[in-house]
Amino acid sequence: MTDDQFTPEESEIVGTVARFVNERVRPLVQQLEREGKYPQHLVQEMMELGLFGLAVPESYGGLGARVPVTAAILEALGSGWATLAAYVNSHSTVAYAIATHGTEEQRKRYLAGLASGEHRGALCLTEPGCGSDLQAIKALARDAGDNYDLTASKTYVTNGAKATLLLTLVKHPPLAGETKPKISLVIVEKAYPKVSVTSTFEKTAFHLVDTVQIEMDGVAVPKSQLLGSVEGIGFRQLMDSLEIGRVAIAASAVGVAANALSEAKRYASERVTFGVTIDQHQAIQIKLADMATKLVAARLMTMEAAAAKERGGRCDMITAMAKTFASDCALEIAHQAVVVHGGAGYIRDSVVERLHREALLYTIGEGTNDINRIVISRRMKGEEEMQYLGLLP
Length: 393
Prior knowledge:
This protein is an alpha+beta fold and 393 residues long. It has twelve helices and nine strands.
């Protein structure tokens, strides 16, 4: 999205984040990665910039950023250090879900804290025996008067160790005559008794983004924590919220790709072989041209998905397309950046080596790319989004 599609205030916000990335983040990234220490000072600065309130309306203390503005901000963060984008992504999905689908009491209770960063949100969806097939979850919320008796085992919870609010997908025991159980979202405060973090996973990249397993063993959750106060609509609420998550992942992937291209271009202008810099060799020129073309295409598709989400209506097809295409392009661009660097790109302290590892996650998180392709193909059976995207004659 170009500056003329943003208001002056929106352009200033995006510009401020870009300056923060360039001045405060880029010079420190490799050192922070080596030290393996949680970057609390950068997180604090992000809080002061209001970045944890991207999806929180201004009336509750947030930025109330439009979806395209959020995408531009996450691209800027991703272009500096994808770890910082990861701190905001799932948190913003939780904030969006509460702001859009929560009761007024839930919004008053949690949104201001989510905006300030006092509350940190995490999604508890995946279970050890069920990943992309979320309708197969076993998490059970039994009726216990004013409470639910919740038993759940949730894994690969991003930011789960730092989170204070766990937006948790659960089933209710089916009543007589019901063919399938209802699925709901409940807001679980991690401080509730019998909620525990049992495992922390070491990953290929994003070492400073905690990914954990969370057990909920007979947790008493007040029924007032049921998102929207209506049982059985959690899956619909989640699908709407995950569209925001897909846009966020796509934008972050575009940021990683932009960083990889920048590093490849810089190195190619400095590395000399056969008497000239390697950017004068046609083989390298073709690689850089393809990388730049894919980057621009991924950015345009991501911004189109963001605009579609902002307009309202169903847009899981275009958001799935954007997430899939942008992450595939990011992985390819990051790989080619390593190739341009040659052996230097395979050294652990190389920026492009890290970017290559980071890019891989975007093809897996927020629904693997193959799952997103299935989402796209299923939506192609209808006409609404096919017409919108100009896929029908």
